[in-house]
Amino acid sequence: MVATDPRRNIPRTDRLLADPEVIAAGEHLNQATIKAIIAEVQTAARTGEIPVAEVAPTIISKLGSRAASSLTPVLNATGILVHTNLGRAPLSPAAAQAVTEAAGYVDVEMDLVSGRRSKRGTRAKAALLQACPAAEDALVVNNGAAALLLAVTALRNRGTGAGSGAKRDTAPNPVHSPSTARSDASPGEIIISRGELIEIGAGFRLTDLMTTTGARLREVGTTNRTHLADYADAIGEDTSCLLKVHTSNFRVEGFTSSVEVAELRTLADEHELPLIVDLGSGLFTPDPALPDEPDIDTALRAGADLVIVSGDKLLGGPQAGLILGRTEAVQRVAKHPLARALRTDKLTLAALEATITHTSNPIHDALHIDLDRLRERTATLAEAVGAAIVAHDGRVGGGGAPGVPLPGWAVELPEGCAPALRTGDPAIVTRVHQGRCLVDLRCVPETDDDRLAAAVTAVLGRLGDGA
Ligand SMILES: *Cc1c(COP(=O)(O)O)cnc(C)c1O
């Protein structure tokens, strides 16, 4: 480095912190945040990314424009409805408003008429039961994984679950209650089909989750075929429950067979065992747009003691785990000590209630999109940016309906557009497939079409200039 290297003149932190313009721009931020931004810009100058003269102005502009959180809003142009990397379900305007209203002090655990303490989540629960009359009771927890963990933990004491005429056990005490003493020593076996052992993403396996409870998994059948007799043969002294899991993110095709919930109910009754059904995706009732996707109502009517779903998949709400089912089973789960550790917050309860009580939300709307309108919008975009329109299938995504195409269209751009669109403003995430960058408008709010077109035009212009 030569002596005249301008990088030696990068302003020092104490000088920048004392600069009146920096102080003014950062008055809404704390010292740690301001220092981090200063350090980041100094580094950019040191590595030659920005000229030294730009250090102070860059810091001032960054401080002034710093968003409340560094999560960047994204236009989802992938055609994938429930995109885990993009935060799954976007909230509806009603749900977003409910979150804002619940942000302050709210009567989440108080009856304002009597001034007494009330139960948490009463109204979200009432909304759930209205939406799903087959459920006698419901509980909301943090997410689907928490719901499953809690359900298999709380229902594992044999003979005390929701099965036919089983006795209720509200305060397990090994000293006074010999029936629970055995279960405490041995958490028992969860019986599950080999065709339903799933990894839900990022290396997390439901099987590992369940064995953290100390329970053992008793896998039955084969990957492609499981019969009622496989379950029946596996039931023994140590069986704690029967579990059926929806294979939400893959499909086994060809020579296959699995056992219906109703058949499992009969078997569970014969042995007084609880039957838990983890559906994952979260439809309340069958949806004609996804004919093979299981729903809560059908599973409960077929005899599940508990049905588990996520709030932010096809339900289109906030991250949550919903447990619906028979009163006795839900109450056992609700009273388990673990329920307190997995309970949901007021913001989630507010968003969930708003989602359930309104007909429209972004996931529902994208699934049932008017195809003529989608085609028109796509054609308008193609024309505006001077690109071709191609047939393109959207997908539900990790949230359900594996392998089911949602036919539609996309605008086809050169692959090189994808990174520029992702890092632009607005940030646009497209589908990169077979050397092309595909822009699918299914999950893009129509009100953002113009912004999106302008961003694509700008990127194509820059790429055309060889920039
Ligand atoms: C998604 C899913 C889960 C996990 O739910 P989260 O809300 O992501 O915790 C559990 N079981 C099934 C079948 C799922 O599809």
From TrEMBL:
Its main location: cytoplasm. Residues 161-186 are annotated as: Disordered. The keyword Nuclease does not apply. Keywords: Cytoplasm, Protein biosynthesis, Pyridoxal phosphate, Selenium, Transferase. The keyword Protein biosynthesis applies. It catalyses: L-seryl-tRNA(Sec) + selenophosphate + H(+) = L-selenocysteinyl-tRNA(Sec) + phosphate. One of its GO terms (molecular function) is L-seryl-tRNA(Sec) selenium transferase activity. Residues 7-46 form the L-seryl-tRNA selenium transferase N-terminal domain. The modification N6-(pyridoxal phosphate)lysine is found at K313. Belongs to the SelA family. NCBIfam families: selA. This is L-seryl-tRNA(Sec) selenium transferase. It comes from Brevibacterium spongiae.
